[in-house]
Amino acid sequence: MNHSVPTLDYTLVEVRNADVASPLVVICEHASPFIPPEFDHLGLAASDRESHVVWDPGANALATRLASRLDATLINSKISRLVYDCNRPPDAHDAIPARSETVDVPGNADLTAEERADRVERFYRPFRETVASVLNRKTDPILVTVHSFTPIYYGERREVEVGVLHDNDARLADVLLSDFAGLASMIVRRNEPYGPADGVTHTLKEHALPGGHLNVMLEVRNDLLADEVAQSAMAVMLSDWLAQALAKVEARACKV
What value does the CA radius of gyration of the chain take, rounded to a whole number of Å? Predict the structure, then answer.
């Protein structure tokens, strides 16, 4: 397959409510299944082009609703994670995966160093710089990244329904996890179905940890986001949960 591509302009990153007073920034790195036409669908079969390997189904809708309910800034990637996974650093092997779970991605196979560098420059760098710019305009920003995950992975059913993920800074995650039992009867776990060892906390490490900003990553099983009713219900639950946790973290900080 010919990997040579022309330089074209796309709207790579969506930012909403950039100047709201709230310090909260909601990010969805896998919001879109869009593959620019010059990549010829990356050689994927039609049945795979809207699947969870291409994006996080329901995550964009959830992130949008969360940002609205919490009066937060919203940042979404507008490119499929198979073109470039904006939640991975350029040196990560799965930043441009040639295989995702059981699906081969022919358009990512045997890329040269120059072709990989081109993807980084065209797709990752604008996303990274946009996030950094938005955070730099806020005082003590709080970063929440939103993802969804497939119920069946390599043929195995996942029981966890909501994952609360963190890297070295667990301040917000700890409060969320301690509060959740009183909010809903769901299966909620720490650093599942993925965790830092899987490389999924890149955005948190890149944009939150260096400045000591509060942060958390939320993973929701995508069968719980199957339609607008489910998405709205999840957004109500998670926004109330986040607001309660943030109030507690702020109260504790004021006592120090």
Answer: 18
Query: pTM of the predicted model, to two decimals?
Result: 0.92
pLDDT for 19: 87
Give the count of beta carbons closer than 10 Å to the beta carbon of residue 4: 9
Coil/strand/helix, residue 168: coil
Average of pLDDT values for 62-77? 97
Q: Judge whether 2 lies within some domain.
A: no
- What residues contact 215, with CB distance under 8 A and at least 6 apart? 142, 143, 144, 145, 166, 169, 172, 204, 208, 209
Q: Is 218 among the domain residues?
A: yes
Structure tokens at 72: 């937060």
Residue 7 lies in a domain: no
Count: domains in the chain: 1
| Mean predicted confidence (pLDDT) in 170-184 | 85
- Non-local CB neighbours of 12 within 8 Å, separated by 6+ positions: 77, 78, 79, 122, 123, 126, 127
